[in-house]
């Protein structure tokens, strides 16, 4: 029992020494820890500000990008509509030329006379093309 009491006294002394050493160690480190904690907090604050600034900027950038894309889509739709309109006009014009060409060929066949006899050796397709080119040049 005496040995047990002595051991408890020794354990308490060691515990007290340990506590003293830890307190001294923590006091010597506390300014450094404070500085490093402050530095870490400063870095975290700076990082948070950057992220916040990026989050504030991002919606504006996305909105501007969306606006530009919307304008581009509108412009492309307008251009596509203009091209479709021009294609319809050209198709109508081509149809008119085809009808005119057919009428001219029919008239030439019906009223073949000496003025066109020199073209007798030309095939009909070449004659059609010549007439069509002349009409296009006049337009």
Question: Keyphrases for this structure?
Answer:
139 residues, coiled coil
Give a structural overview.
This is ANKRD18B isoform 7. The protein has one domain (2-138). The chain contains 2 helices and no strands. The protein has helices at 2-110, 124-138. The chain is an all-alpha fold and 139 residues long. 89% of the residues lie in helices and 0% in strands.
> Can you give the helix content as a percent range?
over 70%
**Largest sheet data:** none
Discrete helix count: 2
Strand and helix order: HH
* Beta fraction: under 5%
Structural class: mainly alpha
Shape: rod-shaped
List the helices and strands and how they pair.
Layout: H1 2-110, H2 124-138
Gist?
Keywords: Coiled coil. The protein is built from two helices and no strands.
């Amino acid at each position: 029992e005496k040995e047990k009491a002595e051991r408890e006294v020794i354990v308490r002394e060691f515990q007290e020494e340990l506590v003293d050493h830890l307190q001294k160690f923590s006091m010597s480190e506390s300014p450094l820890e404070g500085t490093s904690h402050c530095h870490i907090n400063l870095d975290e604050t700076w990082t948070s500000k950057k992220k916040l600034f990026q989050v504030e900027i991002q919606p504006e950038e996305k909105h501007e990008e969306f606006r530009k894309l919307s304008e581009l889509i509108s412009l492309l739709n307008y251009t596509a509509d203009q091209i479709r309109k021009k294609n319809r006009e050209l198709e109508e014009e081509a149809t008119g030329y085809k009808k005119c060409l057919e009428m001219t060929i029919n008239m030439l066949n019906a009223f073949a006379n000496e003025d066109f006899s020199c073209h007798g050796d030309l095939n009909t397709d070449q004659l059609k093309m010549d007439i069509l080119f002349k009409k296009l040049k006049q337009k």
